[in-house]
Amino acid sequence: MTDSLQRISAMLLRHYYLFRGSWTRIFDLMYWPVLQMVIWGFITVFLNQHSNWFAQAAGVLIGAVLLWDVLVRAQFGFTLSLLEEMWSRNLANLFVAPLRPYEFGLSLMAMGIIRSAIGVVPAALLAIPLFHYSIFEMGLPLIAFWSMLIMLGWSIGLGIAALLFRFGLAAESYAWASIFLIQPVSGVWYPVDVLPGWLQPVAWALPTTHVFEGMRAVLITGTFRWDLFASAFALNILYLGLGFGAFLFAFARARQRGQLLQSSE
Fold it and tell me: What number of CA atoms fall less than 13 Å from residue 132's CA on the CB side?
């Protein structure tokens, strides 16, 4: 256990050195969350002046933007950390060391948390002076929403990593596009009952739907929906198990076929 923690820490230290030597990487992490928060913040100001519903639920859109970016940055943080190893042709060097596949997966998950925090926290802090809205006022429910979105970001990242192990950099575009496939049915900007009846079961099969419905319940009625949290947690456990299984299976197959050496440019 101690050896595993040391190897995972070594992976995190490697990425710390990358960040320390490149402020552009940190700026890149913060750029999109801040930009989107500013755009949607001004839209919220406009809607507050012209819509009673938004006036009663001030911050719904800004909160949705910030929480959606938690998911996006968690998945990007996971897959980008893997892609950087592939771009630099470093996978073979990593696995010459006694680094186990699950330790590699856990280090990528930790990088998902770190990159998500670097990207979203500055945007959340900037929203306070700009729009007089603090997502931190949600209190403990914010931690619940944050953790559920991080878990889903890991699951999607694990699935994409499996594709990258199987197909190499030919699957790179999925790392950037896949996450947005679930956005229209996740109820990020609107309640799930807006969707057609046949599409709602698909929406409820996603943890994101439970998170954003729960966020609106907190902001509009001031109540935390434990039923939505329990559903999101159960779905995340399921998807995380499937994602880790696919990750380990694809890694083992890639190692057997010698694809780890061929997966880089």
Answer: 2
